[in-house]
Amino acid sequence: MPTEPLPFQILPSILAADFTRLGEEIRRAEEAGADGLHLDIMDGHFVRNISFGPDVVRAVRRCTRLPLSVHLMIQRPDLYVREFAEAGANLILIHVEAPCDVRNVLRDIRGLGIRAGLTLNPETPLECLWTVAEASWLDEVLLMTVHPGFGGQKFLRAVVSKIRALREQCPRLDISVDGGIGNATAAECAAVGANVFIAGTTLFRAADMRAAIQSLRKSIQAALGATEAKG
Ligand code: DX5
Ligand code: ZN
Predict the structure, then answer these.
(1) pTM score, two decimals?
(2) C-alpha dist (Å) from residue 16 to 148, 179, 201
(3) Cβ(124) to ligand 1 under 6 A?
């Protein structure tokens, strides 16, 4: 009996927002029909960039009821998951490459009553996921489609086969993609099993974000339709 396809979600990444008017940008995303927001936390060590911390997450939390997905690109996620949970994160994604006890941190995140996810950099083999975690500990796996640290980069097509392999292993897991996501690349990822789409530049640089989100949805639905037709 064919299972219901997983619902797909579109999350604008606020790293691409205009920080001089962040509150308005959050409201723009909410009114445009975003399913949630993606917040990139960078510490200048795990990645060569520094973004923002728990206080900004707390401020965003005050602006919107959308679920907040917090992507920790930091060396020591073990030291900060509680702060981000208390600041309002609904999901915390840590990197499998972070030099910490990943399984403990995943357990800590779940212990704080929020969803837990693992992120893999483009060059990290899928097998690394299963050396530190079991599928039952994870609410989401994020497969980076750019090298983490900056928005506006080019989509790395080599990750597509990793998305397909992970979907074959985990038919019901939320699989997110992040980096260089636009209509064509979202369709490519949807066709092989991604169901959570994170986009910064494509959405926040759009004059009409609602139209941009609708266009992404159409591209994803067309790809899913084509995949179903292939059977
Ligand atoms: C990169 C971040 C991404 C980035 C996406 O390290 O994790 O979320 O903001 O930006 P775009 O969609 O512009 O590639
Ligand atoms: Zn991100």
Answers:
(1) 0.97
(2) 14, 11, 6
(3) no
Which residues are near ligand 2, the ion (C-beta closer than 5 Å)?
A: 40, 71, 178
Distance 200 CA to ligand 1 centre (A): 6
Ligand 1 contact via 212 beta carbon (within 6 Å): no
Which ligand 1 atom minimizes the distance to the CA of 38? 8
Domain at 9-230: CATH code: 3.20.20.70
Q: 134 alpha carbon to ligand 2 midpoint, in Å?
A: 22
Sheet strands (E) in 89-215: 91-95, 115-120, 140-144, 174-178, 196-199
How far is CA 111 from each of CA 58, 72, 107, 137, 142, rounded to the nearest angstrom?
20, 17, 6, 11, 20
**Residues 6 or more apart in contact with residue 76 via CB below 8 angstroms:** 43, 98, 99, 100
**For 173-197, how does the pLDDT look when each residue is reduced to its tens digit (9 = 90+)?**
999 999 999 999 999 999 999 999 9
Provide CB contacts within 8 A for 136, sequence distance 6+: none
Summarised one tens digit per residue, pLDDT across range 53-82 is 999 999 999 999 999 999 999 999 999 999
User: Is the minimum distance from the CB of 17 to ligand 1 under 6 angstroms?
Assistant: no
Residue 184 corresponds to which tokens in the numbers above? 């064509």
Calculate how far, in angstroms, residue 86's C-alpha sits from the geometric centre of ligand 1.
Answer: 24
